[in-house]
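Many introductory courses stop at the sequence. We go one step further.
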Amino acid sequence: MTWNIVGFTYELWPQVQRYHDENGWVTWWTQEDIWNCWRMYKTASASSLGFLLLGDTKIRKDESLLMNFGTTTAHNIQEEAERKTLERLAKERNDLSRNTQNIKYPAPKGPGSILSDDKWTPMLNDSFMLGGIHSGAEFHLAEELFFSIAGTVGGTSEEKWKYFFQNNKASLWDVTHNIPRVFARECVGLKTAGYKPFFSDHSLIFRSPGPSKGLTFEKYLTAISTSGLTANDKTLAIQNVAEFLFNDQSYLKY
């Protein structure tokens, strides 16, 4: 169950000023933001693979990920180097389509799984998340550092991921600027939507209780605010993420 353009605009428009007020560091708001957010929501809700990838900027530069999973884009690719990479990968996919009978490889830019957009804002990111949430998509964390930090640690898969987050604080909090990372915001959104984490020695996957459009922009923003993220309250924010990931607020100490 996803919104049409009328329902999307009806839900987002009253929250636009709130996005501006709560994200004063964003100086590139434009009159096209709602339209771009709608395109992002629509594209994310129709991901060709049925799942979306979460992760920091490194995943937008990983050629193997871009080749296999493609991008979710509302406007244009975020950086020039990425645009050139995708142009080359698009040619490779076209060559594969021509040389592989009965199999067509879609363009890497479009309804893929990796968020990349040169008009990125928290509002656009939330539109990406809500598109996946409303369609009941899975979210997969793409984290290349997991194996180097926790790959050889003993214990259960959940304990390995706990060790990873405890020993890689930058995945949830930017300690240089003392602000939350986007993944922390996404965890709070997934928690609010009723998603649950599933751990393995190879991946961290978030699965939905089922397609729903009950989570609105207003509810999403309220959850972000009450979790401590808007106020940059590190202790409260990390407690909320730890409760979501490990069902225990005290599980992570930052």
